[in-house]
């Protein structure tokens, strides 16, 4: 006999566990099923999904450690601090990262208990429709068990996309998982893909001494960013020592005990070879829908491997929802969380909502890049008349005091109504500063609204105020 729930969530990543918690808060009987162990020492399934186990959280831990090393090794002198012989204990750095992940996964277990969510360890698949809902089969360590649910949320996330004929062993040729656990700093590191993950992981090992070469198929660097931001970041990354080659075509990739050899054609059509000790393949991600047996309930994936949903994340089958990386839209943890909350609230009869126009993007390099809303090129393509305000951190006292004055804030506003249409930031604290822009856009603020808000002095946030004022050429400190 199967156990019955109001809601069953498949997947315990950011979209899944947040949806389960919110559904529990709203008084529903909830179960959340997760089967992935993520190299758990005991082989136990771990909560948190890719983001917490082998994505967002561990990569930010390594970014922080490598940034501290670079500051001590190369920038302490600027503050009058003399340091010599700084060394990085890679094993200790990796252990610190692993300890943070373990602590966070334990935190989700606590939250499940607090909100009366039943965790089920195993792999779930649909068995079919039953009276009053849906039946699922869960393969656990002890065998199979059946559960039924009035409603189901699919939140199975995504996995790294691999290139054909490029075997990833996560030892020599790695995706994001292998790149997070190198045992030592490679002398030469190759990265295929100049996207967010490739740039972040490339930056980690570059700071620790690796010679990093990035190969990207697209002709334009950071094409999703505002063109002004992308141009500035290419300069910064190049100055830092990342070798970035755009418009390349990857050929044969051969791995041996000595390392990896990558044959490629450069943007000018010349045959080239990159020899490196390790290679990171970072060419995007694909939805995790394998083994769900969607056909049993009348569903299937589209040509991108995604599950089609409506504006409120309901699939073509009433009562089955999908959120996060398995559906259309940005593959971002916070986007999945917003969708998870929306779906849980809709299930409870509330007016759940997710504003896709105000979801922020962040690249956690040094400096960070963050943006929300439209880019200049998008506004031009849309034929929308706009005005621009931009202000540099080099004119900000707090940034100069911190020894980190790279970058700027750029505000794009409607030429007639002054409504803020997009904000773009380059700064080491961009991921935090962008929150003000998100709130402003959520409440349909004008650039004048931001410019008239009192910002603390001295603070980095003053650059946001100055950029907003600059939309009407009213900046006060530049």
From TrEMBL:
GO molecular function: dihydrolipoyl dehydrogenase (NADH) activity
Compartment annotation: Cytoplasm
Domain Pyridine nucleotide-disulphide oxidoreductase dimerisation: 359-468
PROSITE patterns the UniProt entry points to: PYRIDINE_REDOX_1 (PS00076)
Enzyme class (EC, first level): oxidoreductase
Note accompanying the cofactor annotation: Binds 1 FAD per subunit.
Pfam families named among the record's database cross-references: Pyr_redox_2 (PF07992), Pyr_redox_dim (PF02852)
FAD/NAD(P)-binding domain: residues covered: 5-340
Superkingdom of origin: Bacteria
Cofactor: FAD
Miscellaneous comment as given in the Swiss-Prot or TrEMBL entry: The active site is a redox-active disulfide bond.
Family that this chain belongs to: Belongs to the class-I pyridine nucleotide-disulfide oxidoreductase family.
Database matches in PANTHER family: DIHYDROLIPOYL DEHYDROGENASE, DISULFIDE OXIDOREDUCTASE
Protein name: Dihydrolipoyl dehydrogenase
Species assigned in the record: Limnobacter parvus
Annotated gene: lpdA
